[in-house]
TrEMBL record:
Residues 234-355 form the L,D-TPase catalytic domain. Gene3D superfamilies: 2.60.40.3710, 2.60.40.3780, L,D-transpeptidase catalytic domain-like. SUPFAM superfamilies: L,D-transpeptidase catalytic domain-like. InterPro entries: Big_10, LD-transpeptidase, LD_TPept_cat_dom, Transpep_catalytic_dom. Keywords: Acyltransferase, Cell shape, Cell wall biogenesis/degradation, Lipoprotein, Peptidoglycan synthesis, Signal, Transferase. This is Lipoprotein-anchoring transpeptidase ErfK/SrfK. One of its GO terms (molecular function) is acyltransferase activity. One of its GO terms (biological process) is regulation of cell shape. The active site is at H313 (proton donor/acceptor), C331 (nucleophile). Pathway: Cell wall biogenesis; peptidoglycan biosynthesis.
Amino acid sequence: MRRSRTRMAGTALALLAVVGLAACSTGAEGGAEQDAPPVAKVSASVEAKAKDVPVREPITIQAKQGELTEAKLTNEQGKEVEGELAADKASWTSSEPLGYGTTYEYTAKAKGNDGKAVPLEGSFSTIEPSSVVRATLNPTDDQTVGVAMPISVKFEQPIEDKAAAEKALTVETSNDVEGSWAWLHDQQVDWRPKEYWPEHTKVNVSAKLYGVNYGGGAYGKTDVTTKFEIGRNQVVKINTPDHEMKVFEDGNQVTSYPASNGKDADPNLNTPNGTFIVMAKEEVGNFSNPQYGYTDVMKKWAVRFSNHGEFIHENEENAANIGVANTSHGCVNLFEADANEYFHGALIGDPVEVTGSQTTMEAKYEVYDWLIPWEQWQTMSEL
């Protein structure tokens, strides 16, 4: 019996040793808890080694369960991309477009609420277009134009994805104006109001075309903007059988000039019906036309209103017919004093309305925006 108790005592000692080992093991696990991984998480909106990243979309670096202590994005030359750190330091966002075909590196650090720092590094490359397409805007900055002036965006090559391009265009006006974009062809989109602009309207146009995918590997080259103002409301009205050119301001006739218009008997020489705009002004214009047997014909105070070839200008050589008969080759002939007066009061974009002719101008010679009915014009938008 005594020997049996001795064995039991030995067994108890062994159990105590096991318990002692277990206590040491628990102490080791407690040390591992003190070395737990950092709680902060930091990430970028673009995966490392990503390719064909759009140049227009902002790059964001974000921290969770902590705040950013460092964040930057640099190009191949080491130049930092402009960006802004949020007030709560939870994110950084780039604020300038990226370059085409460029590799960028981002680096960041986030400090968690456990006081531990977490780094982030990565790189990516942006899209490399097969071509970049330049666009121009008209009217240009700070012009004062007439109430029929359209806004034109012209591209140096055809655009496949017209909707993408049109989405990048905005028109802001100081007065409420109903208007619409319309694609005249695959290299030009115009905006015009449903009716003539309200006078003295201020207009700001923005074409944020840089980075826009036009399709076929072509992308926008740069953004373009313009700001201009609409002038007084002046409209020229010519009813060809009357041999008279009337000028209206704010709907009221302010003057009229005797005129000789295009020959009535020859449809090819009519001054055609339509609503046109003043396109250009020349103090002296060359009106030579070898097809009809005259060269070196210079006329003063020439105001172009169609690229088909129609002008308002002086023609003292035709003085006998001015106010009496239509004998020109399509232009509106005035006496020199009248042409001079009208020339100096005309604005680019003033409307010229012609009625009473045997022919109507086809909508294909610039500027023909007002020759297209409003209902049809609206269907020519891609949006």
